[in-house]
Each structure stands twice: as C-alpha cells, then as structure tokens.
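Tutorial, part two.
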Amino acid sequence: MKNNKLLAVVRIRGRVGVRNDIAETLERLRLKRVNNCVIIKPTPSYTGMLNSCINYVTYGEINDETLSKLLEKNGIKSDYKTLSEKGLDKETREKLPFRLHPPRKGYKSVKRSVKNGGSLGYMGEEINSLLKRMV
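Running the prediction step on this input gives:
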C-alpha cells in the first residue's frame, strides 16, 4: 500500500457472532452497519485495525474518480488532493460513514477472502469497481 493514497473501507458482514474486540475495532473505524464505508489514510494504527477485523471488511486504494462520485453523492465539496494531503476536514468527518446501497449484481462471496474468490480483505484497485456498483 502506498502512503499517499487513501483507503476506502467497506463493511460487508453483519454483527451476529462478532467477538467483542473485533466489534470494538469496527466501532472505532465507524463501521457500525453493513454497506457502510469510510475513507482513511493508511497509517500503521489503521493498518493494524484493518488486520484485526479483516473477516468483516473489504478495503483498497480509492482513485480520484470514485472518491469524487462518493463525495458528490453525499453532498461534500472537496477533492482528492485536499483529502490525501490534509486529511479529512470537519465537514467530511461529520458525514462519515458513507451509507451505500448493496452492490448491483451482489458481492462475490461474504464468506471467502479475495484470494479465494470472495470479497473479504484487501482488494487493491478492485475496490473502485465495487464502490461504483454501490453508489
């Protein structure tokens, strides 16, 4: 993961049967419900949080076009360069998490990782196609 990129994190599994420490991590990431999305900078603390709840979320680097669609849908006037350099401003933080629709044509699988043909875990650039189907 590159440090100058932003990560989009989407929760794709529910809360039934979630261990308490993982549930707390998801709360700290502001991912309380399925299909919620947050935009974060890839710092070591966030990376550790993502690794602990990898079986409940999917994430990857978001590009300019997808981020602008996501921000426009939620009524936020900001651009990719501003967010990647300065971080999230007050207006953007108040509107997080982004509430998205379930993806058109569904997830591949919510029980398998990306390596095994599912949708869980690190997706890289493929997160953009998932988010476009959800906006």
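The chain has a mean pLDDT of 84. In part three we will examine how such features are distributed along the chain.
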